[in-house]
Amino acid sequence: MPTDEKEKTTSRENSQQTETKDARPQQEETPDKATRQEQKKQQKREKRENKKPRRRIFPIWLRIIVVLLLSAIALASGLIVGYGVIGDGNPMEALEWETWQHIIDIVVKER
Protein backbone atom coordinates (compact mmCIF):
# COMPACT_ATOMS: atom_id res chain seq x y z
CA MET A 1 0.00 0.00 0.00
CA PRO A 2 2.74 2.49 0.65
CA THR A 3 3.92 2.18 -2.95
CA ASP A 4 0.47 3.12 -4.25
CA GLU A 5 0.51 6.30 -2.19
CA LYS A 6 3.95 7.21 -3.55
CA GLU A 7 2.76 6.67 -7.09
CA LYS A 8 -0.32 8.79 -6.49
CA THR A 9 1.68 11.65 -5.03
CA THR A 10 4.25 11.55 -7.81
CA SER A 11 1.54 11.45 -10.45
CA ARG A 12 -0.17 14.41 -8.76
CA GLU A 13 3.11 16.32 -8.66
CA ASN A 14 3.76 15.57 -12.31
CA SER A 15 0.29 16.72 -13.32
CA GLN A 16 0.68 19.92 -11.27
CA GLN A 17 4.04 20.63 -12.88
CA THR A 18 2.64 20.22 -16.38
CA GLU A 19 -0.31 22.47 -15.51
CA THR A 20 1.98 25.22 -14.25
CA LYS A 21 4.15 24.93 -17.34
CA ASP A 22 1.09 25.28 -19.59
CA ALA A 23 -0.33 28.15 -17.56
CA ARG A 24 2.80 30.29 -17.91
CA PRO A 25 2.63 32.68 -20.84
CA GLN A 26 5.56 32.78 -23.16
CA GLN A 27 7.46 35.91 -22.32
CA GLU A 28 10.22 35.63 -24.84
CA GLU A 29 9.47 36.49 -28.44
CA THR A 30 10.75 34.24 -31.11
CA PRO A 31 13.32 35.78 -33.42
CA ASP A 32 10.96 35.36 -36.39
CA LYS A 33 8.23 37.35 -34.68
CA ALA A 34 10.59 40.18 -33.78
CA THR A 35 11.96 40.42 -37.31
CA ARG A 36 8.44 40.38 -38.76
CA GLN A 37 7.44 43.27 -36.51
CA GLU A 38 10.51 45.23 -37.55
CA GLN A 39 9.76 44.54 -41.21
CA LYS A 40 6.20 45.82 -40.78
CA LYS A 41 7.47 48.98 -39.07
CA GLN A 42 9.98 49.50 -41.88
CA GLN A 43 7.25 49.05 -44.52
CA LYS A 44 4.99 51.57 -42.75
CA ARG A 45 7.88 54.05 -42.54
CA GLU A 46 8.65 53.65 -46.26
CA LYS A 47 5.00 54.00 -47.18
CA ARG A 48 4.75 57.24 -45.17
CA GLU A 49 7.88 58.64 -46.79
CA ASN A 50 6.75 57.77 -50.34
CA LYS A 51 3.24 59.15 -49.87
CA LYS A 52 2.44 62.27 -51.90
CA PRO A 53 0.98 65.23 -50.02
CA ARG A 54 -2.76 65.59 -50.61
CA ARG A 55 -3.84 68.75 -52.40
CA ARG A 56 -7.47 69.68 -51.95
CA ILE A 57 -9.09 71.05 -55.08
CA PHE A 58 -12.30 71.91 -53.25
CA PRO A 59 -11.20 73.50 -49.92
CA ILE A 60 -13.12 72.87 -46.73
CA TRP A 61 -14.17 76.51 -46.25
CA LEU A 62 -15.66 76.50 -49.76
CA ARG A 63 -17.52 73.26 -48.99
CA ILE A 64 -19.12 74.88 -45.95
CA ILE A 65 -20.26 77.88 -48.00
CA VAL A 66 -21.68 75.63 -50.73
CA VAL A 67 -23.59 73.54 -48.17
CA LEU A 68 -25.04 76.67 -46.56
CA LEU A 69 -26.10 78.05 -49.95
CA LEU A 70 -27.70 74.76 -50.99
CA SER A 71 -29.54 74.63 -47.65
CA ALA A 72 -30.90 78.15 -48.15
CA ILE A 73 -32.02 77.31 -51.69
CA ALA A 74 -33.73 74.13 -50.45
CA LEU A 75 -35.51 76.10 -47.71
CA ALA A 76 -36.71 78.79 -50.13
CA SER A 77 -37.90 76.28 -52.70
CA GLY A 78 -39.70 74.30 -50.00
CA LEU A 79 -41.46 77.45 -48.81
CA ILE A 80 -42.50 78.36 -52.34
CA VAL A 81 -43.82 74.87 -53.12
CA GLY A 82 -45.57 74.54 -49.76
CA TYR A 83 -47.21 77.98 -49.85
CA GLY A 84 -47.88 78.21 -53.58
CA VAL A 85 -48.74 74.69 -54.69
CA ILE A 86 -50.05 73.02 -51.55
CA GLY A 87 -51.50 76.15 -49.95
CA ASP A 88 -53.05 77.57 -53.16
CA GLY A 89 -51.43 80.99 -52.66
CA ASN A 90 -49.12 83.11 -54.74
CA PRO A 91 -45.75 81.29 -54.61
CA MET A 92 -43.67 84.49 -54.41
CA GLU A 93 -45.64 85.70 -51.37
CA ALA A 94 -43.96 82.94 -49.35
CA LEU A 95 -40.75 84.96 -49.40
CA GLU A 96 -42.28 88.25 -48.21
CA TRP A 97 -41.98 89.36 -44.58
CA GLU A 98 -45.61 90.49 -44.34
CA THR A 99 -46.81 86.95 -45.01
CA TRP A 100 -44.72 85.56 -42.18
CA GLN A 101 -45.72 88.38 -39.83
CA HIS A 102 -49.37 87.49 -40.51
CA ILE A 103 -48.68 83.78 -39.79
CA ILE A 104 -46.86 84.66 -36.54
CA ASP A 105 -49.77 86.89 -35.47
CA ILE A 106 -52.24 84.06 -36.07
CA VAL A 107 -50.15 81.55 -34.11
CA VAL A 108 -49.33 83.86 -31.17
CA LYS A 109 -52.52 85.94 -31.18
CA GLU A 110 -53.52 87.74 -27.99
CA ARG A 111 -56.22 86.01 -25.94
From TrEMBL:
Xref: InterPro entries: RNApol_su_b/EpuA
Q: Where are the transmembrane segments?
A: 60-86
One of the record's GO cellular component terms:
DNA-directed RNA polymerase complex
Q: Which UniProt keywords apply?
A: DNA-directed RNA polymerase, Membrane, Transcription, Transmembrane, Transmembrane helix
Chain residue ranges for the region called Disordered: 1-52
Which ranges of the sequence are coiled-coil?
none
Q: Which Pfam families match?
A: EpuA
Give residue spans, biased composition: Basic and acidic residues: 1-11, 19-49
Query: Know the name of this protein?
Result: DNA-directed RNA polymerase subunit beta
Say which species the protein is native to.
Lentibacillus persicus
What is the phylogenetic placement of the source species in the record? Bacteria, Bacillati, Bacillota, Bacilli, Bacillales
